[in-house]
Every structure is written in structure tokens, then in C-alpha cells.
Amino acid sequence: MVSPFEAMVQQLTDLGFFGFFLPVLLLFVVSYGLLLKTKALGDDQKVMVAASLVLSLFILGFGSIIFGRFFSSLFGIGTIVLAGILVIALFIGMAGGDISKIAGDSRLLMMFVAGIGVVVFFLALSSIGIVISGPVAATVFFIVVILVAVALIAK
Fold first, then answer.
1. DSSP for 4-31?
2. What is the DSSP string of 21-84?
3. What pLDDT does 3 receive?
4. At what angle do helices 22-38 and 45-94 cross, to 10 degrees?
5. Which pLDDT value is given to residue 74?
6. Tens digit of pLDDT for each residue in 99-139?
7. Which comes out higher in pLDDT, residue 35 or 1?
8. How far apart are CA 151 and CA 113, in angstroms?
9. Are 71 and 26 in contact (CB under 8 A)?
10. Is the pLDDT of residue 1 over 70?
11. pLDDT tens digits, residue range 40-85?
């Protein structure tokens, strides 16, 4: 038997809520925020709203289903990764460890978070069919290792 929540999510999926409405809303909010912050079109907010709406619809017209699938995968994988980090932090806390000492170096923590973000991004790309080959992934990995080593040495 299908639960009411599953039926509701399926109805929203069938109506294009996740494949069209949410990606348009996300692109609209991001473009509006950028226009508001940079004041690229002046101070008239009506112009910014119109330009943001047109821009988000044009971008979504370019690849609507692909954008929806990418954003769904990106946020889904990101949520799973964040939940895993939370569980690890809980285990460290239960074992008597001090998480503030582990995450004390902000530069190292920032590199760790950026690394996780890159991995999540590439996993989301693979969900829409863009696959990075082994040699390219190895090259990127070694470049990142070298950059981290240089950053830690220059510290």
C-alpha cells in the first residue's frame, strides 16, 4: 500500500514540480540575488525581477529535465554526506573526543569541506550522464594533493 506522502511526492513529480518549478525558482533566486548585490541593472527592483525571471526561464529552457535531475542528485547526495559527517561527529563526541579541537584549524577544515563539495558535485554530474574518466580523475586528484601540500607548507 502506498503511503499518502509517497502519493503526494509522486503527484508533484508528475506535475513537474521537481523537474521544472524548483529549478526555475532556484535559478530565479540566485540570479535575482546577484543582480541585487551587484546592482548591474540599477536600483529598480521590478527590472531585476523581470530580468531574473526571463533569465531563469531561458536557462531552464536550455536543459529543463537535466537541470532538475542534476539539482535533485546534488542536494540528495549532499544531504547523505552531511548526515554521514553528523554521525561521525556524534561518534567522536560519544567517545569523549573534542570536536572543536579536531575542527580547530579553519584552513584545513575549509579544504576538507571544499573537497567533499567537489566529490558531491562530480557524483551529481555522473547522475546526469557526465562521467569523468579514470586518468582525468587521477590527474585532478594529484593536482589537488599538490595544492593542499603547498597550502600546508606555506602556512
1. HHHHHHHHHHHTTIIIIIHHHHHHHHHH
2. IHHHHHHHHHHHHHHHHHTTT-S-HHHHHHHHHHHHHHHHHHHHHHHHHHHHHHHHHHHHHHHH
3. 84
4. 110
5. 82
6. 777 666 677 777 777 888 888 888 888 877 777 788 887 88
7. 35
8. 15
9. yes
10. no
11. 888 888 999 999 988 888 877 776 677 777 777 888 888 888 888 8
Cα separations in angstroms, 142 against 27, 137, 148: 33, 9, 10
Strand, helix or coil for residue 94: helix
- Mean pLDDT value of segment 82-101: 80
- Cα 126 to Cα 124: distance, rounded to the nearest angstrom: 5
Largest Cα separation within the chain, whole Å, is 60
Contacts of 117 (CB under 8 A, 6+ apart): none
Among residues 59, 60, 64, 56, which one has the least CA distance to residue 32?
56
Grid cell digits, residue 49: 525581477
C-alpha R_g of the chain? 21
Cα within 13 Å of Cα(96), Cβ side: 0
